[in-house]
Amino acid sequence: MIKVSIVVPCFNEQETISDIVDCLSSSKEKDFELILVDNGSEDQTGERIRRSDENYKFVKAVYLEKNIGYGGGIKAGLEVATGKYIAWTHADMQTLPSDVFKIINLHYKQLNNKNIFKGKRISKRTFLERTITKFFEQIFQLITKVKIREINAQPKVFNKSVMKKLDFTSMPDDFTFDMYFLLLCQSNGIKIMEHEVFFYKRKFGEAKGGGGSGLYQKFKLGLVFLRQIMTIKRKLEDENSST
Question: What's the pTM value of the predicted model, to 2 decimals?
């Protein structure tokens, strides 16, 4: 069995594919697989993944004809993951994929079917960024009664045994995938632990979550976020009441 599987969903990320691969190829770790999911990209992402798949043994490629959403891309990668430890992270290189190895090497004793790890930002952010993040964390806690900081912070890392306790097929295909995953962990008694990770500025392209950089775009995303929290909360309540 492969030790570590790292899933990276990619949609129009042609500029970062080589950086992702180079970051891991220069690592001292040898027993891992990098699962690059071409999520229906419209640029050269698929071709660059194909090239990496041909040149590096640790690369495993998944090609989707059309974009099925951020969460759908992760699920497609998880279907072919064979590692003892599973992780996913974004393709934007705001966090280094090699951070996954740091988390596993430092916390492997805690990575069982009772715990998962997520990144915790230690880089500086603007006052507006901090305020927006704090606001949505408070709203999230008010609605769900669950305190989780920085829901979308990467990477997410866990023992494959966790997958036996959670129904990944029921998780949403859109950008709320991380939120649903963490709430599902919480409702199944799986502790969410954190590891400090540096977040870099995005060098290429734009964020795919739909938030944009303007205040109005972030407000629109916030309304979707709130609506999805309520939907996910009701769904989890229904699932728990039927078991």
Answer: 0.88
